[in-house]
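pasting input
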Amino acid sequence: MKRYICAFLALILCLACLSGCHGSKRQELFEIPAEFDTSKQYEITFWAKNDTNMTQVAIYKKAVADFEALYPNIKVTLRLYTDYSRIFNDVITNISTGTTPNVCITYPDHIATYLTGDNTVVPLDELMADERFGLGGSEVRFESPRQDEIIEKYLAEGIIGDEHYALPFLRSTEACYVNKTFVEKLGFTLPETLTWDFIWQVCEKAVEKDADGNFIVNGQKTLIPCIYKSTDNMMIQALRQQGADYSTAEGEIGLFNDTTKEFLLGIAAHTKNGEFSTFKISSYPANFLNAGQCIFAIDSTAGATWMGSDAPLIDIAEDRLVRFETSVMTVPQFDTENPTMISQGPSVCVFNKPDNGEVLASWLFAQYLLTNEVQIAYAQTEGYVPVTSKAQNSPEYLDYLSREGEDNDMYYDIKLKATKLTLEYTEKTFVTPVFNGSASLRNAAGQLIEEVTKGARRGRTVDSAFVDSLYDEMTSLYRLDGIGAGSGEKADLGPLPPTAVALISLIAATWVLIGVYVLVQTLKKRKNQGNT
Amino acid sequence: MKKFLAVLMILCMAVSLFACAEKFDPAKKSEGVMTYAEYDAAAMDAEVVIEAYVQATQSWWDNKITAYLQDPDGAYFCYEMACSEADAAKLTKGTKIKVTGTKGAWAGEIEIMDAKFEFVESEKWVAEATDVTDLLGKDELIKHQNKYVTFKGLTVSKVEYKNGEPGDDIYVTVSKDGAEYSFCVERYLTDPDTAVYKAVGELQAGDTVDIEGFLYWYEGVNTHITGVTKN
């Protein structure tokens, strides 16, 4: 009998232990290896994003080839995307299967979500500071920038919690590309700093039509005076400029406030008047601008090569192109004395893997993207700026900046103007707090504008009640009541799964049986002692 | 005699059943649903309710699906309809659905935005390709927007992968009568594993081809290619 009980208990304990192990395959924390084993072959994957720009693709390919020449034992496989959200979606899918890329272009907002996995993304502080393999390290086989040569403001954008999880790759901001010819034709003079008030004044005048129903300013049937590409940025910048809440660093949501409402109601009124639309609703601002069907096209400085009559990249038929003078200005401001604008652009993160050598190989490649060769070449493709002072101050880059307008390709004046705007206003740029859920909050910020714009276009009454209802809808759609510090309540995680219930019952039963066994043995012992 | 009567009765019943069966009319609409002409006449940003047959879908993603629909009178492009993954699997070629959404225009493409749909019990119907070769370069072409169409005898001018290598969209420039047109292999409609993706990738400048696809619009005609035959 004793044997049976012992065997039964042992079986239960084994099962409990095995069940406890199942599903908890932990990703170990990355540790910098003592040596980088150059005799071992490493195959790493790099998921990169380009702006549908083949020159950028060529630069990625060259960077891979040059890096592989320096490290013949590392093979880098490039996977190309043209959309950040697709990268985000694919990474999320691959976290669950343990098949994340090694190095990935991404946004810090997205990394915050990746971090909900188990040691999924490698913290970079130790790697950056490592004397041998870190930034400017002694054993790095290329001219890597030192940490103090990365623009501090940009490097800080990769901090999540207390640690760096991303390296900046390139930076841009948003700009307003203005058809100056039309502004002046309408009787206005562009101010030094653009404001929303000025834009709406011009837009109101611009929508006047002649007796045939053509817009007077362009003689066409189509005109949307102001088109915004990224409505999330539009909202975020408007709130920042007015000192209104968006979110705290801890993730407390402040987006749904009265300043937001006032801004939304203003947008709705101007949309109703035919003055405003968005990329999602109407299409690329550049296409309308270049066809003379838009006056204020607000888009990234990284979209500058598509803007203007002589743009090197154009998506509309030649016979639709209109000649006009383009001004590149900061995004519209509320406080002209203290202009602020978003800092954006790709960052790079390194994913954790069981083999520390593989992670080190990935880090070396990520670091290679900060060399002058890659930084300057990529920055020249669009209105991007390099993220290192080493590249920004190099004679090659300074020469590039000095040649604005020499041609309509490499030195295209609108692109160079957008680049200079980004450089000039670096200290005026900002980023939003990053936390798990910050990507959803950003989506909600943009969607508020999309919804009031659609509502106004569709003849709905967009008033305070409409916006209040929208706040509820967005909170629910993006699950904003359950993220960050904003909830203030413990989340209801629902009932325990049946396997967990069974396991806990089994463990409890085991302890009861052990107790019973000990009790029986004690009683038997006493009985035997009593008999003797 | 009994046998004869029984056979006669069965025959009569079969004939009467056949007579009762309603002939399938693919153009038939349910109550409150727009005809294609009514949809075509609807203003931009107006709510529209249509019924049509699925001709193809792009890949399902994030609880949304983009569908190419057609009925005997015209075609519809439904952009990112709300759709569960389970329902997406049921949107097979020829399936009839009722769509409620808003009419919009994006870069010249007339589409139904913010749409939701429900399945309609019906026989399946698949559109024949309309030959619109002679309409290339003419204003009438846009009247066939979103239809399943065919072009005969086009000359390939250029084939470019969006990212310089297979994986994403393929941009195809074709010419006819001295004018060039931009067509596209949309990777979310026909992914790199499909025969058409591979066939288009192998085309060379100067090839003469017949092309089938959906008459999509992006700042001008931009057919989403679903079939190509080299002449």
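fyi The CA atoms of residues 225 and 294 of chain A lie 5 Å apart.
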